[in-house]
Amino acid sequence: MTSKIERPRVELLTDERGAYGVGIVVPNFGGRAADFQISAIYRPDRIPEEEKFGLSPILQPIPPTTLRPVHWGAEGQIADQLHEAMIAAAGLPRKDPRNTWWSDDPKVQAVNRQKYYGLKRAAIAITNRLVYEALAAAAAPDLLKIARRFPLKCCRWQIYKAICRSARMAQLAETFPLLAYLATMSGHYADREKIERRAELRRLIEAGAKLSTIAHVAVIPMALRRIKPGVVATQGITEACELDERSLWELIPPTTEAQKRWAWAMYRASTIGGPYSEWVARNAHLMGNTKNVVAAQISDISDWVRASYAAGIPAHVQRALGGHNHGSKYITRPFSPDMSLTTVRDLCGAWHEAVALADPKVNVPLPAPWRGAEKIDDMDIVPLTSTVEIALEGRTMHHCVATYIDRVVWGDCYIFSLRNGHSVATIEVVRAGETAQIAQMRGPCNAMVSPAIAAKIKKWARQKDKWTLPPKEQPKLAGWDPDDCEIPF
Fold this sequence. Notes:
Strand order of the largest sheet: 4-5-6-7-8
Shape: flat
Largest sheet: 5 strands, antiparallel
Radius of gyration: 28 Å
């Protein structure tokens, strides 16, 4: 692939030993006078010491359904450049078309849109076929298996390069993934101390030092050997290293996804730290099975904990420190790290309810419900028509829907409750033009509702003739999917 070509063409990179990667030559890339080669090299003996920033291989084919292949490392860059060449060959301008699709005629737009995405799928398929072939011929299978356990976008390539060059590093990547990650991280944006520490870690690893010695230099506890490769770059790992009570490290969950939630919980709790972080370390695994559910609970509980701490500080001291009481006067029993999750949820819910109801802006009658009570099969769906009902819903369901009272007062949304003898789901409905649309629906502790119940609620919401909205213009929210909501109750 040394000769120039007029248009990009993806090819296997080969030498006298056979294939060693995949590449593409892009003539006049980015307006440059010279050609530019984008390559993904897999064979250990051909891996360069340094690659251009942002072009690291991902060591796998590109997902065929992705809309932005350029985000998938060097392989994605190759597919993206091939796609642009195919667009040009089809006689379409080489620019982002998604506003006009190169025409003002809707029929022509539809044809061009179909052509654009068809060529994108073709470009990804061509690139992936060669990536499969190159990986089979050039990559070290055992080392590739180890590297693929690490996060794709932040450290997989760094790990692969390191373990291709050092048998000791390959052994470390299997026995203590977090240490291997810290020793192989890229030097981009690292301060001098971190760079020197990384160099020392590599020296100790190659010298065959004990794991305990290497972990001491890295300032991480040996208990974090349990951290899975896919979790090493998750926010919260640094905060976990700072826990004072060593027995808490034994509470790290066993699976990758559970560890990610645990680490994320530690990160969110670190804004307060101390005994609260230790409490979160003990209880995060009980808070739910999705990141959003855990994050929402920790956010709510954190507000209550701050108020608990502020309750013990005289008002004049708070003023001197430039703070405020954070609703501390509504604390009936302050936070203690030996409390159970159930106790904390109850106290936190009661506090949120008291704070919400004390706000003079919401201590007024609510607007008329946008829709009356109805039955959905054997369940009832009812509007919450008073501040007390909304606050009670929040306490019963262990979430902070009470903080939405002001939005209901202003006519921005309405809150409904799905019940089957007890509350099953809390539903926030918002405006979508001239009708209503579900913004979110959550079960107890912000849990996602089951697909069967979600389908029934969506069917209920689609009955447009049954909604009566107050006369207030609101922006359209068409396309809002409650399953994608990032800010639960």
